[in-house]
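Researcher: Next entry in the queue.
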Amino acid sequence: MRWSEFPKWGKWAADWAARYHAGLRDRPVRARTRPGEVADALPAHPPETAHPMDEIIADFESIVVPGITHWQHPRFFAYFPSNATPAAVLADNLITAMAPQCMLWQTSPAATEMETRMMDWLRQAIALPEDFHGVIQDSASSATLAAVLVMRERALNWQGNATGLAGQPRLRVYASDEVHSSVDRAIWISGIGQANLIRIPVRGPRRGMDIAALEAAIEADRATGHLPAGIIACTGGTGTGACDDIAAACAVGRRHGLFTHVDAAWAGSAMICPEFRALWAGVEQADSVVLNPHKWLGTQFDLSAHYLRSPDDLTRTLAIQPEYLKTHGANGIINYSEWSIPLGRRFRALKLWFLIRAHGLEGLRQMIRNHVAWSNGLAERLRAVPGFEITTEPVLSLFTFRYAPVGRDADASTQALLTRINDDGHIYLTQTRVDGRYVIRFQVGQFDCTAEDVDAAFDTITQTAISLEDG
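Model: Structure for this entry, 471 residues:
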């Protein structure tokens, strides 16, 4: 296809996107294809000659779309959202059309300077202090890895990159079992090793780290010759929405000279609403914070906001400057490739600029407030239905429940309920475990979700339970 043909097919794609979103409620949320079905529909060998675009699009409709789980479906209540608002999608189309490589200021000044300004807009929106400086990472996983690498380098007096970990004391990083699995992966990739990720028990209704146990673990490690390096705390953990006492965790970090990173990948977006900021009280004392606008706010994947109080520590850890990556004749510029693990960078800031201008902070706040209210209302309705138990109370728009009819095995009944709900396709839910019990997660976060969609979820959950009882 040539650019002269692009307007025709670009219009088709825009029309298709509008039809797709308008008709999502008529589709099952989760793909119903069998394993291998999509692969079997694709030729084993690449074509030697060009195919006409209308043929490619027909195959897209018949092969690809049926195999997609619809993350933009208003009744997607699984995992966390990965929203795609029209304004951000439009920005992404423009980014793709220009296809700039934004690794340095000189390779696209607009991308670098807009990223600086957009990270400051978002910093103001979530009320982080002015001494935090932001960078857009591809995901919270990359931001957490970057933070762990900084922990490692600071603890080793900046010698880890230079000399490796051999012969060094065993580094220790501390987190609860409620943190995301990306923390484990960061520990692996950094070379610290799984055995040196020290799990701190949780306590209380918010399932936060036991701060006394955290301090005791650090002191015990020091006494045995290990080298504590950092603390990873979470706000709105993936499983149940667990929230650590951020102020207390940061205070422990300061007393022991440790780098403290806060993972607020999902819940951080809600901090644009002042009334929810108690969930991360004390965050201003952290060294590093990550949140994902590509979850709840509406800038589709990938766009993760990573804030640091000392970006110099990050660039000291990650920056490499061969001659071909230097910018001569310009002082005081930022090269964001020195702030992230990949060298290559997309123009992600444009999506955030379009989104915030198209909706305004107040429009985004109202969306989040609605989701929280609707989810809390559903939890109360389920609590009143015999056989249902709320296993963790709502944190923002997330809670967990199980189905425990009298005389039945609760784990088996809950799993059977979840399987039948997801096979039916009207809504989509996922599972986790709470203190060893099998439970169902429910969260509201899809941008176009309505109160009626949440009502439909209640009907689906309760009617499916009745159908299980009836056999």
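Model: The chain has a mean pLDDT of 93.
Researcher: Noted, moving on.
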